């Protein structure tokens, strides 16, 4: 009886062992199948993205410059087909009409196109170099550029992002909150030495600390506002982030605006005094300058670390002052920034003048 029980136990153990071995084999095969499938998928993906003629990624995928800089967008050939052209374009998804061609070239010559082409040339550092040089960057030059090798059979392209380094500033009408249509917002930013900000520029500004509770237009005609410290009057208790109103009617809807500016070629300086708005303008002109624009003051604050703990008139009739070294007696806020007194009565003789030349 004991022998039979032992035999049954051993037989059960054998079956259990056999079952476990079968499971192990099945798991091994399954694992092998997943690994094999993954290899096939990865190899297929790599094969699909590998270019024959152009180097990809093109040395670096993002180039950063400031207004007025000269930059190079890289595009390097691995090898050359017998007959080919290289075409540089700026990608503008919302553009209506023909694509924005900047440069066409072959092995012997190149031809520039459009307003960007007038400031563009090919670097040609060596025989395989098709890199594009752009001089005297404008605020509007930021975006995505495509270098395309065209030979009629195996056309290839690489994309490079040009990011203009600058600062975003919110702007409200002297007449109060939410007064601009989209077209008025664009014009207002241009009048303040800027351009209307893109979503990516606002996003970067938010990561750097921009917290603003009024919604404003962006370049793509959407309306957003950035929140670092959620509060009841700014979207409630949701997480920090970019609040969105989505796309709005360009001609009917009215909001504030977010403008973008970069470094300037001139300088901002302060004249102390107790001026009215008109007197402040005269004070600047006596120094061979003009009252500064908002964008010029923000540029000085951002790029020259301008710090002046005195309210001063600006050209739009507002009174502001830039703080790079926060302290209690200069606005009381812990973060650097450009502080604002809004748009006081222009007859008040209380403020100095911020000038630009």
TrEMBL record:
Keyword check for Secreted: yes
Residue ranges occupied by any Link domain in the UniProt entry: 167-261, 264-357
A single GO cellular-component term on record: extracellular space
Record-annotated Ig-like domain positions: 57-161
GO biological process: cell adhesion; central nervous system development; glial cell differentiation; positive regulation of neuroblast proliferation; skeletal system development
Keywords linked to the UniProt accession: Disulfide bond, Extracellular matrix, Hyaluronic acid, Immunoglobulin domain, Repeat, Secreted, Signal
PROSITE patterns: IG_LIKE (PS50835), LINK_1 (PS01241), LINK_2 (PS50963)
Disulfide bonds: 213-234, 309-330
Family the entry assigns: Belongs to the HAPLN family.
Protein name: Hyaluronan and proteoglycan link protein 2
């Amino acid at each position: 009886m004991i022998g039979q029980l032992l035999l049954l136990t051993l037989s059960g153990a054998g079956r259990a062992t056999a079952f476990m071995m079968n499971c192990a084999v099945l798991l091994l095969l399954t694992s092998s199948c997943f690994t094999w499938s993954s290899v096939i998928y990865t190899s297929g993906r790599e094969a699909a993205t590998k270019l024959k003629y152009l180097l990809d990624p093109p040395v670096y995928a993002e180039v950063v410059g400031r207004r007025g800089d000269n930059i190079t967008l890289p595009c390097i050939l691995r090898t050359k087909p017998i007959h080919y052209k290289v075409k540089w374009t700026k990608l503008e998804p919302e553009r209506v009409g023909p694509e924005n061609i900047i440069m066409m070239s072959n092995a012997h010559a190149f031809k520039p196109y459009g307003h960007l082409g007038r400031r563009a040339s090919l670097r040609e550092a060596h025989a395989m170099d098709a890199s594009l040089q752009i001089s005297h960057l404008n605020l509007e030059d930021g975006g995505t550029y495509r270098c395309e090798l065209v030979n009629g059979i195996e056309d290839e392209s690489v994309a490079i992002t040009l990011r203009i380094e600058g600062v975003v500033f919110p702007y409200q009408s002297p007449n109060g909150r939410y007064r601009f249509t989209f077209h008025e917002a664009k014009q207002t930013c241009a009048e303040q030495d800027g351009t209307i900000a893109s979503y990516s520029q606002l996003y970067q500004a938010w990561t750097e600390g921009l917290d603003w509770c009024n919604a404003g237009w962006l370049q793509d005609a959407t309306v957003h506002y950035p929140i670092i410290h959620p509060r009841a009057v700014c979207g409630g208790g949701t997480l920090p982030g970019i609040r969105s109103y989505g796309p709005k009617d360009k001609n009917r809807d009215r909001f504030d605006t977010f403008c973008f500016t970069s470094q300037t070629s001139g300088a901002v300086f302060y004249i102390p005094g107790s001026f009215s708005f008109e007197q402040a303008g005269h004070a600047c002109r006596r120094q061979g300058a003009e009252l500064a624009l908002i964008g010029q003051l923000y540029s000085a604050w951002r790029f020259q670390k301008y710090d002046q703990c005195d309210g001063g008139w600006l050209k739009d009739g507002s009174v502001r002052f830039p703080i790079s070294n926060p302290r209690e007696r200069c606005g009381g806020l812990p973060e650097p920034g450009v502080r604002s007194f809004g748009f006081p009565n222009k007859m008040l003789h209380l403020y100095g003048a911020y000038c630009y030349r």
